[in-house]
Amino acid sequence: MSERIGFVGVGRMGANMARRLKECGLNVAAVYDSRAKSAKELAKELGCEACRSLAKVTELADVIITVVSDDAAMDEIFAPTGKSLLFRAQGRLFINCATVSPATHVLVQERAAKAGATSLEACMASSITQARQGTLYLMCGGAPQAFERAKSVLEKLSNSMRYVGAAGQAAKVKALVNMVMNINTAGLAEGLGLGQALGLDLSMLREVFSQTGANSRVLHTDGEDMQNRDHSCFFSAAHAAKDSGIALALGKEQKLKLPLAEATKKQYDRMVAEGLGDLDKSGIAELTFKGRHGKKQA
Does residue 293 sit within a domain? Predict the structure, then answer.
């Protein structure tokens, strides 16, 4: 518990995870973000250093938690040369929470090992509120010893975690979680959109859904938001598109056809193309409710 903690990527998820660990009494020593202003503001709040370089985070922290956007960002922060996080990284533990491809997690583990460090993927199946409350659900992959070392930190961030296996395995599970979630979200938007077009009371319809085979987790998290056009972002449409793509790539590797996942990704890609990518994934309802798309958001 005395290990110094660093964060790379302090958007809404990373910042709330850092706040949570600080409140739990852990030593949050350093933060870094490509948007320097975000890092400075959080550092002032937490009383730690806002690092100007990735190598400085590694210098100041024993355990570095990364929450970045995609595979390209992971490749950059873990570059095998130059002053990346791997510069003088002997003995460090990297806990990588971003939803990226399994192959990237495997590559990061290989690069970390060459630098004398260890890495663990800790894939999150929760959102901003859970990050702040320390109630994330985590799927972890990597060497068992890395998981054991990370436990004391991860226990402060989660109310449940599961060790899945070697590097890349947790990322595969997370890709499937998000694939199914995104399909369910798109299906719910179509059901409610058709219900509205038929003149049905949507509050009644959601109640009926909740008591029948139409029930789902997204009905409870997104149904009312779809009805009320409240798409405050907890998990963006752009991220949904990206994550659906990760699952489709895995399916292609296995020579599997995933028509529902393909159709869902097309819907989220359409949201991005039409300027709706920053809406919450519930905003997919803007494409399925009559008279909505193109009108000002409520």
Answer: no
Beta strand spans in 129-221 (E): 136-142, 158-165
Find the length of the chain: 298
Q: In what order do the strands lie in the sheet with 136-142?
A: 49-50, 27-32, 4-8, 63-66, 93-96, 118-124, 136-142, 158-165
CA distance 135 to 195: 34
Q: Which of 76, 82, 114 is CA-nearest to residue 98? A: 76
At 230, the amino acid letter reads: D
CATH number at residue 249: 1.10.1040.10
CB 168 within 8 A of CB 71: no
Q: Is 286 exposed, middle or buried (CB count within 10 Å of its CB: 0-12, 13-18, 19+)?
A: buried
Task: Give the C-alpha separation, 153 to 148, whole Å.
Answer: 10
Q: Which helix (H) or strand (E) holds 118?
A: strand 118-124
Give per-residue pLDDT as tens, 61-76. Answer: 999 999 998 999 999 9
Per DSSP, the three-state class of 176 is helix
Domain count, the chain: 2
User: What pLDDT digit, counting tens, does each position of 120-156 carry?
Assistant: 999 998 788 899 999 999 999 999 999 999 999 999 9
Q: Which residue has the tokens 């994330």?
A: 136
Q: Are residues 11 and 142 in the same domain?
A: yes
> Residue 212 half-sphere exposure, CB side, CA atoms within 13 Å?
7
Average pLDDT, the chain: 95
Angstrom distance (rounded) from CA 156 to CA 2: 14
